[in-house]
């Protein structure tokens, strides 16, 4: 029986994780739940899964304390945003396996998480792309890996020119063809900022140089990522687009949970397309690679500036194309700080202020 602590239990990742647990109560026990502000739902979840009230947390500080105080085998971090950094660090320091869906904590605090890790496999990725990479990498040794290929759906604007995106509305940006996500993540998928963040995450998780990490556009979202080996073989992880699969793999690492989702129907015809990334229309990926190479607090600044620009876009204070312009402006103005939790927080505050100032200047 694996004891599971779920952070962000009322969000998309958390509710799907509880669905996996509910179907496999002989394998998992929920020992703690944490949510942002939805007190009614998290307490209903606690009652359903027999979690005592003292193991229910609201807010980041309570969530971090819960990680330190509850006996758990696995901590699933499904919190949204860089506020998930402290719970991630606490999970690693406490010796728990960290099933990581909160990519931002790795983006902003990569070297801090690396220092806090007590074993090589303590962080298990839950993002569908990184879960796919981890699964495909098991086909060979680390030394045999030639490159990582991260797939992207292309978002709602695949095939469009940059000029045609000048008048994109927030509603159009949220019309993702495959995934149902929150406002920031869905917009990031439209700009491909999300894919840029995933490249940084892949570099930090697997220790592969940016020159050996590529993006290919795959509209069907069936192949979730691929690994090419030195002999020319490419191993792909393919499945229906359902987050319960990588969640279950993260919770039960290194073993699989039977019957999590339906397999692909091989009795029917399939057509899978792979297209090169249009980096002129979507410059966020190459920007993120450069930010990742710089390291330090640059990724934290990239992430924070993007969030402020996305919020402004949805307030209709900024155009869609200006989102990446704001990121570029803030990153170029930044001087990296020596990494620490305090430095990350300072860099984020600075980046948000700088982004807001540039947004306000453009409105004037």
Give a quick rundown of the structure.
By secondary structure, the chain is α/β, with parallel strands linked by helices. The protein has helices at 12-23, 39-49, 60-69, 85-93, 103-116, 128-137, 170-173, 183-191, 193-206, 244-252, 284-294, 298-314, 322-332, 341-363; strands at 2-7, 28-35, 56-58, 74-77, 97-100, 123-125, 145-152, 213-217, 223-229, 234-238, 275-276. It has 14 helices and eleven strands.
The SSE string, one letter per element, is EHEHEHEHEHEHEHHHEEEHEHHHH
Q: State the helical fraction.
A: 40-55%
DSSP strand count: 11
Q: How does the major sheet shape up?
A: 6 strands, parallel
Termini separation (Å)? 59 Å
Mean pLDDT: 94
If you compute it from the alpha carbons, what radius of gyration comes out, rounded to the nearest whole angstrom?
A: 20 Å
Spatially, the strands of the biggest sheet line up as 3-2-1-4-5-6
Strand content: 15-25%
Supply the number of structural domains. Answer: 3
Structural class: alpha/beta
**Low-pLDDT segments:** none
Summed up, the helix count is 14
Shape: globular
Question: Could you describe the 3D structure shown?
Answer:
This protein folds into three domains: 2-125, 3-Layer(aba) Sandwich (Rossmann fold), CATH 3.40.50.720; 127-241 and 267-283, no CATH class; 295-364, RNA polymerase sigma factor, region 2, helix turn helix motif (Rna Polymerase Sigma Factor, Chain: A), CATH 1.10.1740. 45% of the residues lie in helices and 15% in strands. The chain is built from 14 helices and eleven strands. Strands 3-2-1-4-5-6 form a six-stranded parallel sheet, with helices on both faces. Strand 9 (223-229) and strand 10 (234-238) form a beta hairpin.
């Amino acid at each position: 029986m694996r004891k599971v602590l779920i952070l962000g239990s009322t969000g998309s990742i958390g509710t799907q994780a509880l669905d996996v647990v509910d179907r496999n109560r002989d394998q998992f026990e929920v020992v703690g739940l944490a949510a942002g502000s939805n007190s009614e739902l998290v307490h209903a979840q606690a009652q359903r899964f027999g979690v005592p009230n003292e193991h229910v947390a609201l807010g980041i500080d309570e969530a971090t304390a819960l990680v330190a105080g509850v006996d758990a085998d696995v901590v699933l971090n499904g919190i949204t945003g860089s506020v998930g950094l402290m719970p991630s660090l606490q999970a690693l320091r406490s010796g728990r396996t960290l099933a990581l869906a909160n990519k931002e904590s790795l983006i902003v605090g990569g070297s801090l998480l690396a220092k806090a890790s007590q074993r090589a496999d303590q962080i298990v990725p839950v993002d569908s792309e990184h879960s796919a990479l981890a699964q495909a990498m098991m086909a060979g040794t680390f030394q045999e890996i030639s490159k990582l290929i991260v797939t992207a759906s292309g978002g709602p604007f695949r095939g469009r020119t940059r000029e045609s995106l000048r008048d994109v509305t927030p509603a159009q940006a949220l019309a993702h063809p495959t995934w149902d996500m929150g406002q920031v993540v869905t917009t990031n998928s439209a700009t491909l900022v999300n894919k840029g963040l995933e490249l940084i995450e892949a570099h930090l998780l697997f220790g592969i140089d940016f020159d050996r990490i590529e993006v290919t556009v795959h509209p069907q979202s069936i192949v979730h990522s691929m690994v090419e080996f030195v002999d020319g073989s490419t191993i792909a992880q393919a499945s229906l687009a359902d987050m319960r699969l990588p969640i279950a793999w993260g919770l039960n690492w290194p073993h699989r949970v039977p019957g999590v989702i339906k397999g692909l129907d091989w009795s029917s015809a399939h057509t899978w397309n792979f297209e090169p990334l249009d980096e002129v229309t979507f410059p966020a990926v190459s920007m993120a690679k450069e930010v990742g190479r710089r390291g330090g607090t640059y990724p934290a600044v990239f992430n924070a500036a993007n969030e402020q620009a996305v919020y402004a876009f949805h307030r209709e204070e900024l155009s869609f194309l200006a989102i990446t312009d704001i990121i570029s402006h803030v990153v170029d103005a930044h001087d990296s700080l020596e990494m620490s939790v305090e430095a990350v927080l300072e860099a984020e505050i600075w980046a948000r202020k700088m982004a807001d100032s540039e947004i306000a200047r453009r409105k004037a």
